[in-house]
Amino acid sequence: MNQEERMYVVGSQKITIQEEIIGKRILDIGGGGEGIIGLCYGDRVIAIDPRKDELEEAPDGPLKIVMDARELSFLKNSFDAVTSFFTLMYINKDDHEKVFREIYRVLKDNGEFVLWDAIIPEYDGSIKDIFVIQLEIDTPIKIIKTGYGISRKDKDQDVEYFISIGENLGFEAIKVESQDKVFKIIFRK
């Protein structure tokens, strides 16, 4: 069996990033790779990623720091906004609450946590054990076509899953946008 036969592929999903994130200081969780948030918001962003190679690949503009989102090295109330752009799908579900707790800690009062991610169905044990989502991201700078993939095992997630985690830790979900297999949730501290 080849890798392509194992892929559960979600066709192209369109996302538009606008000048919507408030504040002077934005923490971007998982800001390596395409570095979408850093590309859009430049030097207002501190992009963290546990992988140095991913940060080196990201566009210039933000301050880039190798760091694990489960243990942020920032003081309480340091950021006006925190973002996560298709990052939580790569973090073990057992660690999601810990990441949310850290985000809550470093976010200023009334600050916003903006989360974009994919709806990943529960793994059914089939040969299609790799989840792949293709994205077309319309940013103020350029259109980016990319894709993300992970093992489907123990990775199921949806909007309600993340809202539940956030609200249990004190966040308020103030806006939810969902289309096909992608979503954006804006939480307020």
Automatic annotation (TrEMBL):
<dbReference type="GO" id="GO:0008168">
    <property type="term" value="F:methyltransferase activity"/>
</dbReference>
<protein>
    <submittedName>
        <fullName>Class I SAM-dependent methyltransferase</fullName>
    </submittedName>
</protein>
<dbReference type="Pfam" id="PF08241">
    <property type="entry name" value="Methyltransf_11"/>
</dbReference>
<keyword id="KW-0808">Transferase</keyword>
<feature type="domain" description="Methyltransferase type 11">
    <location>
        <begin position="27"/>
        <end position="115"/>
    </location>
</feature>
<dbReference type="GO" id="GO:0032259">
    <property type="term" value="P:methylation"/>
</dbReference>
<keyword id="KW-0489">Methyltransferase</keyword>
<dbReference type="InterPro" id="IPR013216">
    <property type="entry name" value="Methyltransf_11"/>
</dbReference>
<dbReference type="InterPro" id="IPR029063">
    <property type="entry name" value="SAM-dependent_MTases_sf"/>
</dbReference>
